[in-house]
Amino acid sequence: MSTSAKYLLIAGFLEARNPATLDASMFDSTGGIDNRKRKRTASEKSMEKKEIAEQEAAMKGPGSFPLERLLAIFQCIASIGDSSFNEEKKKLLFTTERITT
Asked: pLDDT for 60-95, tens place per residue?
C-alpha cells in the first residue's frame, strides 16, 4: 500500500472517530489555542451524561463525514510526513533506474 493510501486511511479513521470540534486542537498549528475565556467546570451529572453519550456513540460505530474534512485532515497528515514520502519516492526512482539500466 502506498504512503498516500495509508495517510488517507488514517485520515478517514480520525475523521470518523473524532468530532469536528476537535479538529482545531488536533490539526491546527496553534493547537486550537484561543484568547477566549475558559469555560466553567462541568458538574458531575453533566459529565456522566457526556460519558454515556460517548459510550453510545462508540457502540454505534463510525459515522459519515464530509469529503472536505477528510481532505483537510489528509493534507495535514501528508504535510507532516512529506519528508518521509519524498524519501520513499527517491528510493522508488533509484530502483527504477537501476532496473532499467
From this structure: 777 677 899 999 889 888 888 766 656 666 666 667
d(CA 74, CA 6): 10
Cα–chain center distance at 44: 30
Among candidate residues 56, 47, 57, the one with its CA nearest the CA of residue 19 = 57
Is the whole-model pTM more than 0.90?
A: no
Does 88 reside within a domain? yes
Which one is predicted more confidently, 50 or 99?
A: 50
CA dihedral 28, 59, 56, 40 (to 10 degrees): -30
Looking at the 3D structure of the chain, how many domains does it have? 1
CA 55, 7, 34, 45: dihedral to nearest 10 degrees? 0
Instruction: Give CA–CA dist 23/88, Å, rounded.
Output: 28
User: Measured between alpha carbons, how far apart are the two ends of the chain, in Å?
Assistant: 26
* Assigned domain for 96 exists: yes
